[in-house]
Amino acid sequence: MPASGIKTRILIISDTHSRPLQNDYPHDPPRAFREPLPDADVLIHCGDMTMTGSVPDYNATLDVLRASSAPLKLVIAGNHDLSLEEKWMSNHREKDWRFVAMEEENDPLDKKASVSKAERQVRRDCKSVYQEARDFWTKEGGVARKEGVVFLDEGSHTFRLDNGALLRIYASPYTPDFQDWGFAYPVKTHDSFNSHTHSFDKTTNICQNPIPSFSASSTEESERNVDVVITHGPPYKQLDLTATGLNVGCPHLLHAISRAKPLIHCFGHIHEGYGARLVEWANNDSAKASDSKNDTTSTTVDTYMTETWRTAITPSTHGDSKSSGAQVSFPPETDIARDRSVRLDLSSLTTVTTSSQPQSAAQALMDVDDEFVEETQDEAKAVELKRGRNTLFVNASIVDLGYKAVNAPFLIEAELQGAV
Ligand SMILES: [Zn+2]
């Protein structure tokens, strides 16, 4: 691997839920998520582009993507982008309120009595609604492709960027089942991210395209290590804490990420988990060890969630009981507003170790400000992120729990290898 790579600006957003770049109320102070989006070499959207997956919602998302000058824009689906999952569509049809809501937005005429029942049935053919959504994002010469948007299905994807860098991505829209939304799997029993050999004991493997393991010796373009993993949901214990105090991230995903050791793993889904954390992997020097060691055969999901996950991450970045890794310091609020983004450079991150003072979950929940004050008292540490040793986790949810677009996009500068 060359000592220095090609500086690449990666703009990351998630969970925009078809919110526009304009303020909700004209008198609100200008927020960071506004026009134009900051310049970047590539833009990534980690899913939940819409509320239910209607075409007007997709158009609103395309308006946001159009406001970016990035020559390449990568998007994945989230659990709300229902019309992009064929299975959800065929299982729900017009019986589900979300399907009805989607169709009423797709075709306001549906609400009128003048539309005959027969016409509605044709319109509500789930296959054609699915195809319409699919065509919107993926059709050659279609609206999204014309804007430089590439919709990613589950699996590995490699791109040559205009700046000469090669970007290797792994993408997956799947999240643990929650209130019967899209792209779901039962997290306690099913693995959607690893190969059979890396799945936990007593687990059903449903992964079509596993996340590839890190290898220190990979030189061929086809087997380059993954630079960025894009999923809709967070992994277990990483920016996955809900307002009700639960870590709802996926343990199979954390295990997969600890194998793949990408530079960046970005996601959204848990709006209140917005932020960035850095981990150091415990097994960070042996390429063989991360791939050949079948370390999960005797580990169940329950054991992994209660204890084993800690062995993947070095003790210094374990963090507290509710989250792992070290919190990455953000630039001052005024800089974020000016830059319309949180700018982070992987060669000079500053992390803040969370307080060693034990804080009860109840106390942390009751007062977020208290937590903030405690953390600022801790020591800041400058860190250079190293490939195969560290991963930066980014929860880039733009909207909050009330679906207001309060959070800033992330603009991350990373050194990528050039295309050979
Ligand atoms: Zn969301």
From TrEMBL:
Gene3D superfamilies: 3.60.21.10. Residues 314-334 are annotated as: Disordered. InterPro entries: Calcineurin-like_PHP, Metallo-depent_PP-like, UPF0046_metallophosphoest. CDD domains: MPP_239FB (cd07379). Residues 9-272 form the Calcineurin-like phosphoesterase domain. It comes from the Eukaryota. Residues 314-327 have a biased composition (Polar residues). PANTHER family: CALCINEURIN-LIKE PHOSPHOESTERASE DOMAIN-CONTAINING PROTEIN, METALLOPHOSPHOESTERASE. This is Calcineurin-like phosphoesterase domain-containing protein. It comes from Neodothiora populina.
